[in-house]
Write a structure and sequence with these properties.
Blueprint (H helix, E strand, L loop, with lengths): L8 H8 L3 H13 L3 E4 L3 E4 L14 H7 L4 E12 L2 H7 L6 E11 L2 E10 L14 E7 L8 H16 L2 E7 L4 E3 L5 E4 L20 H5 L2 H26 L1
Helix pairs in contact: 1-2
Length: 245
């Protein structure tokens, strides 16, 4: 632990069965390397860990590949909307189960896969993020944190909703959860049982067309919010007018 006092040379020598000169040299080298600090008349102590913050420039992967004289290409493997886990909700400042966007993209250099990028995106800052080219939706999740509660079944139902919203087939791989194959209508074609090892094999359709919902988002919720606000204002106005009478 930092600032912990180190025993004397005599104590170290007797404890480890070495000479006092060996103990002295070991302490001197640790002090010179910055692991220990010594104070005359007091003794040696464990030094505080030094924090290093080297400057690091992170370039886009496409730029790095181009600078090497190679051709960059990328393919979207996963593009979906998921409910935020407690960890993601804390990171993004959202409520648990609020929608977040998730993507998995493989980057290639001259056709060779060189990087697999997985991202979670706050829809408030990138509302059009889902308007990328993806013919499938792949959901990879760990539902063990739900435990034996209805939560893992509700999480499975979200994938069906995503399929209907985007008209994309969904392949869902849930570690400790329910894995399934879902068609573009939200119908579950195959599924595993909860907490049971199993394998699914099937065929899904590819669709590259954007639905009205994908293009415009939660327009129904926005319209409902607008009319609710109008109703509240109308009610307040009627109350104030009735009081004046």
């Amino acid at each position: 632990m930092p600032e912990t006092r180190i025993p004397s040379e005599n104590h170290i020598a007797s404890t480890f069965g070495v000479s006092r000169g060996t103990a002295h040299r070991a302490l001197r080298e640790l002090t010179s390397e910055g692991y220990l600090v010594g104070f005359q008349g007091i003794g040696r102590f464990v030094a505080k860990t030094k924090q290093y913050a080297p400057l690091l420039e992170v370039k886009p992967i496409s730029q790095e590949i181009s600078e090497r004289g190679e051709t960059h290409s990328a393919k979207v493997l996963l593009l979906t909307q998921e409910p935020a886990t407690p960890e993601l909700a804390l990171t993004f400042g959202l409520n648990v189960a609020s929608p977040v966007y998730r993507s998995t993209i493989v980057h290639r250099a001259n056709g060779r896969p060189v990087q697999l990028a997985e991202r979670y995106v706050n829809p408030q800052f990138a509302p059009d993020y889902l308007k990328q080219d993806a013919g499938f939706i792949f959901v990879i999740t760990n539902d063990g944190w739900w435990g034996d509660t209805p939560g893992h079944r509700q999480h499975q139902s979200y994938s069906r909703i995503r399929a209907i919203e985007t008209r994309r087939s969904v392949a869902r791989s849930a570690n400790t959860g329910i894995s399934s194959l879902i068609n573009q209508k939200g119908q579950v074609l195959q599924h595993t049982n909860y907490w049971e090892p199993d394998v699914l094999r099937g065929q899904l359709n590819v669709n590259d067309k954007l639905t009205f919902y994908t293009r415009h988002g939660d327009y129904i919720a926005r319209i409902a919010y607008f009319f609710s606000l109008l109703m509240v204002l109308y009610t307040i106005t009627r109350v104030l007018i009735s009081r004046k009478k």
